[in-house]
Design brief:
single chain, 371 residues, mainly alpha, two-stranded parallel ribbon, 56% helix
């Protein structure tokens, strides 16, 4: 009987070993290496979007018609900035609970939309020329209290070009940041609440990119002057309203789930970029179409849904989200979903540090590099 048990145990061990080896081999073929629980998932493969961009343009050449700026974005920007200033004026003499409530229900959506506008300018999707896009970004940044538009533009382009490269992708959290936040709902909630602060210090890790330049300095000077003007003319409650709008727009709010939606590993497998197709895209200027944006960063916000419509066999097969509220709840209470739920890599895909991040345009010109 003991001999029979031993043989059964040996057979089970052999089956488990075979399964483990098969799984490891499959994951290695896909470029993903198993890592410790409290560490990022490591990939030996380059970021996945440049290859898919070329394949999609080969199969759907009609997508090229979607590439190009959308000047109407400037007028959306001007209108939302005017809205935020008007609301700040309206709440300036209201009780503090009104200031907080309006910032959460109105200001957060307006500020989030302004982030999308700044994002569009980073990719030169408002105007063709660089300077008009920069001026549009400075305008959009005015009601956001913290002058970060120019810094965002620089480091966001590096996020595209070097997705997952720890030394260059400012979208990745610090390792100490992930350990500090941990797995508890309270830690994650506090992290989201203070997310603008964590986001602001991440560029210090990206040492290959200069932190300061003349446009960054201009951004700071203009932003500080505007904040002072709001304080003097409209009063401290108006400025607090604008600051709270900023924190809610990318923090502990359903809109804050967008920062989890984009690249956190929320589905089984090797997929590392996720789109959101829920109703809030209407207020968020289609920013949820994140796979489409990474595949075609030269397509503006108003045309992103058409990419999915033209290539349903590709985007329909990818895992996606339909509710930021549901995702926010999952992030807070799922102990397996942490700041370490991200892919990192060393492979820079032979991309130059000053790459303009137009793989779709490069593919059309036949100049895209083979990974």
């Amino acid at each position: 009987m003991d001999c029979g048990r031993s043989l059964s145990a040996i057979r089970r061990a052999a089956r488990n070993y075979a399964f483990t080896q098969s799984t490891l081999a499959r994951r290695l073929r896909n470029g993903v290496v198993n890592t410790p629980r409290d560490e990022f998932t490591f990939s030996t493969a380059p970021e996945p979007h440049r290859l898919r961009t070329r394949e999609l343009l080969r199969r759907h050449p009609e997508i090229r018609e979607l590439i190009g700026p959308n000047p109407a974005t400037f007028w959306w920007t001007a209108g939302i900035v005017a809205l935020q200033i008007a609301v700040a004026w309206l709440v300036a003499d209201q009780p503090w609970w009104v200031v907080v409530a309006v910032a959460y229900t109105v200001g957060a959506f307006a500020d989030h939309a302004l982030f999308v506008m700044i994002h569009e300018t980073a990719h030169r999707l408002v105007f063709k020329r660089r300077v008009p896009n920069i001026l549009t970004a400075l305008l959009a940044n005015l009601p956001q209290v913290f002058p970060g538009a120019m810094s965002f533009s620089k480091y966001h382009l590096k996020h595209h070009a070097f997705q997952g490269v720890y030394e260059l992708d400012g979208d990745l959290p610090f390792r100490w940041e992930a350990r500090l936040v941990g797995r508890s709902p309270l830690g994650k909630a506090l992290w989201l609440l203070l997310f603008p602060i964590f986001q602001a210090i991440r560029p210090w890790r990206v040492k290959e990119v200069p932190l300061w330049d003349r446009w960054t300095a201009t951004n700071v000077a203009v932003g500080v002057a505007f904040d002072a003007l709001v304080w003097v003319v409209l009063g401290p409650k108006a400025l607090v309203y604008l600051a709270l709008s900023l924190f809610f727009s990318i923090g502990l709010h359903p809109l804050g789930a967008r920062w989890i939606q984009r690249h956190y590993l929320t589905a089984a497998g090797e997929q590392e970029t996720f789109s959101y197709y829920g109703p809030l895209n209407r207020l968020a200027f289609n920013v949820g179409h994140h796979n489409e944006h990474h595949d075609f960063p030269s397509v503006p916000w108003n045309r992103l849904p058409r990419i999915r419509a033209l290539a349903p066999e590709v985007y329909g097969s990818l895992a996606s989200h339909t509710s930021w509220v549901r995702l926010l709840r999952r992030f807070l209470f799922d102990r397996e979903l942490t700041l370490f739920s991200r892919v990192v890599r060393h492979n820079r895909n032979q991309v130059a540090l000053d790459d303009p991040v137009k793989p779709d345009v490069d593919a059309l010109r036949g100049t895209a590099k083979t990974p």
